[in-house]
Specification:
single chain; alpha+beta; eight-stranded mixed sheet; two-stranded antiparallel sheet; 10 helices; 10 strands; 45% helix
């Protein structure tokens, strides 16, 4: 018996009259939560009027598996800023798997690269679930495997449509760069990326807003940008530092995420440090405070302590201050 195989095909939509587009849009409607959903009539408008998108280019894709439409995706390219924005990658519920997601994503990126689109960054919003305090951790994991990193800075998603008030909420931005990411991103660079995303939202919404609503939309964006700017007190933001990101909309609870290797190393070094202290006390008692014994043990002890300080960053030091020395001794028993 031959092995069952699936033939995938990427389709780019340029007309809402395309039957495949209508099938793809049904998948979008059924798989997108309300707080993340753009009115499908707006999508239809932009599919038919892509040339009017003045700041760049819009991409609407469908995924076909053995001739059946099983996915919908929406990207935007902001030409001047060389930023590619992922709006949606949706799959039919019967085809939701990591394999199908990565196949869909890879086909899209290959298409965009073959079109000679010059981009420096790809961005993806990761939203908090409606009326819940935790992020879509599954989405974070999916994009991390494609080398996206979470920006450890405040991000507020702009309002979708006129009346979708639930869509305005603190969220996360994941970032990918074709040149490879450093552990940090300059504050001004992050603020600029957020401004570009906000400009994209505005350009998308403008055909559907009256003059007063356009002014209100710009004011909301300015308010959000001011709040984001004030929330970042350093000159840079950490990438993948989100275990320490707090959101005021979550009543001060920490957004769950993966553990950091540095923190594990910090605990190991602290245990070693305490063990060495105990060894020093023991040898001092045995040698009667002999100077040579103190020097021979004290030097490696000091080196170990310095090494621990090098490994630890400021965030880890803040956390470790909360750990009492009695708790460390308890670990050694």
């Amino acid at each position: 018996m031959g092995q069952f195989s699936i033939k995938y095909e990427l389709v780019r939509f340029k007309s809402s009259n395309d039957n495949d587009f209508q099938e793809s849009l049904k998948i979008y409607r059924s798989s997108t939560p309300h707080e993340q959903k753009t009115n499908s009539s707006e999508i239809v408008y932009w599919v038919d009027n892509q040339r009017e998108f003045g700041i760049g280019e819009l991409f609407f894709f469908g995924l076909k598996a053995n001739g059946v439409v099983v996915g919908y995706a929406e990207f935007a390219y902001v030409r001047k800023e060389r930023i590619l924005i992922i709006d949606y990658i949706n799959l039919d519920q019967n085809y939701r798997s990591n394999n199908n997601f990565y196949t869909f994503y890879a086909l899209i990126i290959n298409y965009i690269n073959n079109e000679s689109i010059d981009y420096d960054y790809i961005t993806k919003e990761i939203l908090c679930r409606y009326n819940e305090t935790h992020i879509h951790k599954e989405d974070v994991s999916l994009y991390e495997l494609e080398n996206f990193k979470v920006v450890n800075g405040l991000y507020i998603q702009p309002q979708l449509e006129r009346n979708n008030i639930e869509s305005v909420k603190e969220s996360l931005i994941m970032l990918y760069t074709i040149a490879g990411l450093c552990p940090v991103l300059k504050k001004d660079a992050y603020l600029h990326i957020v401004e570009v995303i906000y400009d994209y939202y505005y350009c998308w919404d403008k055909p559907f807003l009256n003059d007063g609503e356009c002014v209100l939309s710009k004011k909301r964006a300015e308010t959000n940008l001011t709040a984001i700017n004030k929330s970042i007190t350093n000159d840079a933001v950490t990438l993948n530092g989100y275990p320490f990101k707090f959101s005021s909309s979550t009543n001060g609870t920490e957004i769950p995420a993966k553990n950091r290797n540095n923190f594990v190393l910090a605990i190991i070094f602290l245990v070693i440090f305490v063990a060495l202290v105990l060894s020093v006390l023991y040898f001092l008692s045995q040698y009667g405070y002999d100077t040579k014994a103190v020097v021979s043990i004290g030097i490696p002890l000091a080196l170990c302590f310095i090494l621990a300080l090098v490994v630890l960053d400021k965030d880890n030091l803040k956390i470790l201050k909360k750990i009492s020395i009695l708790q460390i001794f308890g670990l050694l028993k």
